[in-house]
Amino acid sequence: MEKKYGVYLCKGCGIGETINMEKLKPRVSGKGRVPADIIKEHPVLCSPEGLELIKNDIKEGTNTIIIGACSPRVKYEEFDFPGTITERVNLREFVAWTAEPMSSDAQSLADDYMVMGIIKAQKGDVPEPNILQDLSKTILVIGGGMAGLSAALEAANAGYQVVLVEKEAELGGWAAKLYKETPRQYPYDKLEEPRVVARIKEVEAHSGIKVFKSSFIEKTEGQPGLLDITIKSNGNSESMRVGAVVMAAGWKPYDASKLEYLGYGKPNVITSIQMEEMAKKGKITRPSDGREAKKVAFIQCAGSRDPNHLPYCSSFCCGTSLKQAKYVREKDGDSVAMIFYKDIRTPGQTELFYKNMQNDPGVLLTKAEVTGVSDAGNGNLYVEAENTLLGEKIKVEADLVVLAIGVVPATRAPQEYLDGLTEAQKKGDDAKMSYIESTPKPDFILNLTYRQGPEIPSLEGAYGFADSNFICFQYETRRTGIYAAGCVRQPMAMADAADDAAGAALKAIQCVEHVAKGIAVHPRAWDTTFPDPMMIKCTSCKRCTEECPFGAIDEDEKGTPFYRLNRCRRCGTCMGACPERIVSFKDFSVDLVGSMIKSIEVDEDEFRIIVLACENDAYPALDSAAIKRIKLNPKVRIIPVRCLGSTNLVWVTDAFSKGIDGLVLLGCKYGENYQCHFVKGSELANYRFSKVKETLDKLQLESDRCQLMQVAISEYDKLPQMINDFVERVEEIGPNPFKEL
Amino acid sequence: MAEATVIKPDLDFVKGVIEGGGESLKKCYQCATCTVVCNVTPDDNPFPRKEMVWAQWGLKEKFAGNPDVWLCHQCNDCTAYCPRDAKPGEVLGAIRKQTIKQYSSPAFMVNFVNSKAFIPVMLLLLAGLLSAAGTFAIPDGEIIFSKFASTHFLQFVFTPALLFGFAVGALGVKKFWADMKKSAGVSSGDLGGSVSATASEILGHSKFKMCGVSKDRFTAHFLVFYSFVALGIATALGVLYIDILHIESPFSLTGTGFPVKIFGAVGAAGLLLGVLLMISNRFKNAEKVGMGSYFDWLLITIIGVIMASGILSWLTRVAGIATVAYSVYFIHLVFVLSLFLYLPYSKLAHMFYRSAAICFLKYSGREKQ
Fold it and tell me: Is the predicted pLDDT of residue B1 greater than 80, yes or no?
């Protein structure tokens, strides 16, 4: 594309009062970068008149637009000019709102930012989306419980073909095993028939949903849009292609045999699951002698919220026990249901049901730490509790004890199995490996053929749930195109599982639609660029394949890497990893950022600090600080990067050889409770950085000139101070000796 | 570590509290706001939260010898601030009713006086007794009420009724006191000092002054209390004049007992005013603290009717309307008799149990002096 440039400077929002435009224009056009006559200014560029100015130029053939105005994070609808290269330079937040008005510092900042913007536009190109062939838009739903059925219906009703795989012989999961369900409508006092029954019928009658029962996924290979799955049903295998996956594999009750201290193992101590079965059969009786139970004790958090068992709240057990108390009371008006709880947690409208149940004279509730269940003779039991509201230490006789058993996600067993193997392998403990392999293999859910392992990886603090720490994108997993919904994601009641399913189905639809258009799936859900390596220079060092957080790069038989592009989230980690610097995007490359760095004006008497800021959290945090008008040291120049993982070490050399005095890598918190949109970008940057410090030391450059900072978006108010402190430390070290060269 | 206490939930007790005016009992989720806002509870082991949870669980035995439900003056600050609308003030009232039942004998009387049959039965009973005395008719001539119900008749029927009431109350207090000592593990204390401190607290109505949302209850209770005292004195003087000194009734309009009459009339007016104030407070605070139970209303009704009929019979006597005067006087007598019998089984029994509880608080040293 022959580039025809247009440079537009906005004077609104305080920019005109901070920067002298008449001085800025010749500096920008100077050095022969762009002709002086194409630089235009406007008092309010985002106004209809201002936008008209740009649009008229586009009609005249302008196709490469550099706008010096507000942050690119705002007004993106106004400054959207399809088919052009549009580069937004953040004069408002990074200059007008953070520097002294009309100072030489402000002027110098504006110069550097505008020149960097022009260089970025010069080096960049209009992206052509890369659309892969033979894509499928079919959505695979794993699990036929409440979440799975709902996801299938949501996707099918939106017009997508759905394949539903259920491992049991019937659809419905746990929801279908219930006697009754908690009330769903005002005034929340009547138990209802399980809603899943209607949903099963709807799914089975839906022409867009193909149901496989008594089946599981034997193999999943490929990438979003091109996921080739093999379904195993009753010994037969069937293969098909799907576009995306909703994983609604559900949960298992916690192993009650570990709850001996709560009396499990005694004949008249049962779990809430057994209670449902019994209620469904008709009478609530004692397993020991078949007599009707008159005094039923419910022990909440049986296993849950206990560091020795399940450290989390299983969410629906309070509602379940209140419901089962109603079974007891409805079957016999003289019976009592006693509920011992840590806290009653009845989210949403369940609270109204709780209030109604509380009003029943025969439903007795107390906060308690249940310490044990002992025999009271005649098959009866004493529930022993401490710290109750009834007294310090109490004993209550019951003829039946129900343990409100907690939720264990279906993902946990395979995760523990695989983590055990990985750990043993790491330690070289062959005996342990063969021991683990000799134990029964748990039910795998996905059986991915990915280099990163067959299942969704475990995450510390997620306790086996398919959590990904994607705080903004809850259904996403760390495998692109696979979305978790329902209790496999976190413990939740049925209504929430249905909502969750809708969310996950929408994400799956987004996935298949985006890959069909060659757009990144998420989080860069607008991005049509893609990593485009110059393979002729590849040395097959495999750093990219190892470092890609999404396993998007595999190796062929010869060991040469190749992309499974639809798994790629466009973070640029491969670009940062590649020692040959062969990976580029149309608007982001090693050369492009390196040229920006090199374009910064370095005066012998001035300190210059570069901040490579992650676009996802660090950059908005800097914007937020600017909105609060928190001053930032004007010696600092901020360059956004897609992710700290995309930071190539050569940029460090570029900066210091040019005479830059200090460099900050500003990224997200990493570690197990990371906040990185690309999972491990800042962690990788930190790893690479540790190597660079050695190099700097060898060059007799103080390694303190480089620092990686982790920042959460909520820490924006502290961020300017963190950077200013760094500048002071660099000033103490003194100017970069390479300046004089 | 101490042995665990075995608790025995009693569903009937829960139902009893609910039916006795504590229908909001089960709404409590034990947040303790009530205990925090209560101005009259002792700091040590405060009420009413613990009473709420005991009542929810039907732990009847916890209320045996529990002075705390009686320390409650039903200011209803708790009810006004309760986030769950559980009305602890009303619930404690209902629990007190259960306690009265527990300590009063014979048991059937409790149900009887609080049943809707009570007043009609009293009416029939008095009519029967008057018929037996041969005076159940409107007498001719000057209106003199002793022609309808003779002084001897009154002494024969009403004095034993009153004594019965006090005796039942005293017996109840005796049991209650023993239970309180047992459950608090207190064996001795300064009984004389406690009684005099209690008397001064009651006479001064000091606890009522601590009430927040229903401050007006102080004035109303104060009026009712002292009016009863005034009426009691007037009645006692009447007995003194007629039965002991054998001089002219102080209640005649012209006689020498005229000052006693005035004493009685002022007491009557005060009582009427006090009851009217109570009713108006109820309505005024109904939104915040609830309307009260049948149990509460019955007492107010009885006192109200006694006062209204007393004054009306006096006025009609003066006006010389014999039929109305005697009929109203009959009603008056029915309600007075009801009040005497009702005394130890009803809300009015609080004069026994609350006094005992306040006294025990001082006796046991739980209330910081």
Answer: no
Interface of A with B in 391-450 (CB under 8 A): 391-397
End-to-end, the C-alpha distance of chain A in Å comes to 38
The pLDDT assigned to B242 comes to 77
State whether B6 and A382 contact (CB < 8 Å): yes
- Which residues does residue A166 pair with via DSSP β-bridges, in sequence order? none
Q: For A24, list phi and psi in degrees, rounded to 5.
A: -70, -45
> Could you give the CA distance from residue A652 to residue A639 in angstroms, rounded to a whole number?
13
Residue of A nearest to B1 (CA): A393
Give CA–CA dist A713/A625, Å, rounded.
10
Structure tokens at A434: 């063969």
Tens digits of per-residue pLDDT, A458-491?
988 899 999 887 767 789 999 999 999 999 999 9
Mutate to test the interface with A, among B1, B6, B7, B10 (most CBs of A within 10 A): B7
Kindly report, as residue ranges, where domains of CATH 1.20.950 are found in chain B.
Answer: 107-363
Contact present, A395 and A368 (Cβ < 8 Å): no
Closest CA to A55 of A118, A46, A587: A46
CB contact under 8 A, A395 and B6: yes
The per-residue pLDDT for range A662-699, each reduced to its tens digit, is 999 999 988 777 778 898 899 999 998 888 888 788 77
Residue of chain A nearest B11, judged by CA positions: A362
Is the separation of the CB atoms in A539 and A547 below 8 Å? Answer: no
**Chain B residue with the nearest C-alpha to that of A381:** B6
- A104 and A41 in a common domain: yes
Do A155 and A266 lie in one domain? The reply is no
Give DSSP secondary structure letters for B204-239. HTTTGGG-STTTTHHHHHHHHHHHHHHHHHHHHHHH
pLDDT digits (tens, 9 = 90+) for B20-54: 888 899 999 989 999 999 988 888 889 999 999 99
Helix (H, G, I), strand (E, B) or coil at B307: helix
* Chain A CB within 8 Å of residue B58 CB: yes
- The verdict on a CB contact (< 8 Å) between A390 and B4 is no
Q: Least CA distance to B54: which residue of chain A? A: A390
Mean residue pLDDT of chain A comes to 94
Separation CA B247–CA A528 (nearest Å): 117
Asked if residue B369 has pLDDT above 60, the reply is: no
Asked whether residue A46 falls in the same domain as residue A108, the answer is yes
A288-299 pLDDT, tens digit each: 999 999 999 999
Q: Both A246 and A263 in a single domain?
A: no
Instruction: Name the DSSP class of A483.
Output: E
CATH topology of domain B107-363: Fumarate Reductase Cytochrome B subunit (1.20.950)
pTM: 0.85
Is residue A71 one of the residues assigned to a domain?
Answer: yes
Do A293 and A367 belong together in one domain?
yes
Give the H/E segment covering residue B276: helix B258-289
Let me know whether A234 and A276 are in one domain: no
For testing contact with chain B, the best of A326, A342, A343, A365 (most B CBs within 10 A): A365
